[in-house]
Amino acid sequence: MSVFHTYYGYGKQSQSGDARMNNRVFASLMVCGCLVSVLVVLISQPFGHVMENRAVIVSWDGGKPSAIGRLVARGQLPVVAQLMRQGAYTLTARTIVPSSTLPSHASMLSGLTPEGHKVFWNNYQADKGYIQVPTVFLLAKQAGLMTGMVYSKKKLHHLAVPGSVDEEIFVAEDASSVARHSVRLLKRNPVHLLFVHFSDPDAAGHQDGWGSDKKGEPPSPAFLDALKACDRATGLLVTFLKSAGLWDRTLLIVTADHGGQGKQHGSADDEDVLIPWVASGGLAAKKGKLWLMVKTMDTAPTVLLALGLPIPSDWDGKPIRNALKPPISFIRAY
Ligand SMILES: [Zn+2]
């Protein structure tokens, strides 16, 4: 008990010389202990990933961040609002141009711009095969981790390079169904890396409209309902991860592939290019709003860092260290 009293009393002027000496010795030991802990983590990284850590990437297809921000402010997206409060986020992250689904997800999951990954097409074409560069799934697999994908647009199969995804589920259904499939997947195989894709906002945007911020046109009610459905579906994942005891060692990133305006997207306009990027879970730092530029290419390296894996030096994306708790944020990239 006296040790703790001494430590917490460190710096008090009324202490005797001996007490101050003890304090200094104890403080030094504490600092050394912390340094040793950090060094152990740093040294252990090159020899093995952090097996217990997990990363879940949740993509709200067409999830326009200005609309998300307004719903959060109204208390209508309670799940993502809590993730934002408890983690680190920006609603002005950027995707690539063209701001379309398959090239954008290719950048999100490969850490490269389209010039690097060369996935310029945006529909399912079996003869195109697979993305030709390493994805975050492939790198995780090569390190001995388990991976999974649950997605609601068939064209995302182009990103599931054979041998890189242990559990692949294509389900052309709504966010609730995709989330339930994802939870079932995690129950039978708690993969280290899971990608989950909800297409509801994109479908509603093309059908009824994303609105237009610069024209002062609000998003369609159907689009807002789709965002609320994504919020509930994300909540199913969060609830499961917490109930299974996995949350504390999980990095969960909620993001999107593009926004939209009117009933279209794909351009270089901010209404199409801006995306949400919310890092949460026990591995995320409680930083609130991030005041730095986040690009969709940063998602893959941030995930690799959370999993304790090396990051390819030729990637365009960089890990968002501010979004991660120490000591993970201190691990050097390779
Ligand atoms: Zn899309």
Q: How would you sum up this structure, described in words?
A:
The protein is 40% helix and 13% strand. It is α/β, with parallel strands linked by helices and 334 residues long. The protein folds into 2 domains: 2-45; 50-330, Alkaline Phosphatase, subunit A. The chain has an 8-stranded mixed β-sheet with strand order 4-3-5-1-6-7-2-8, sandwiched between helices. Helix 9 (200-208) packs antiparallel against helix 10 (221-243). It starts with a helix and ends in a 27-residue tail after the last helix.
Q: Which features does this protein show?
A:
334 residues; alpha/beta; Alkaline Phosphatase, subunit A; 8-stranded mixed β-sheet; 8 strands; 13% strand; disordered N terminus; binds zinc ion
Structural topology:
Layout: H1 2-8, H2 17-44, E1 54-60, H3 65-73, H4 78-86, E2 88-94, H5 101-110, H6 114-117, H7 136-142, E3 147-151, E4 167-170, H8 175-188, E5 193-198, H9 200-208, H10 221-243, E6 250-255, H11 270-273, E7 274-280, E8 288-289, H12 299-307
Parallel strand pairs: 1-5, 1-6, 2-8, 3-4, 3-5
Antiparallel strand pairs: 2-7, 6-7
Helix pairs in contact: 8-10, 9-10
The structure holds zinc ion.
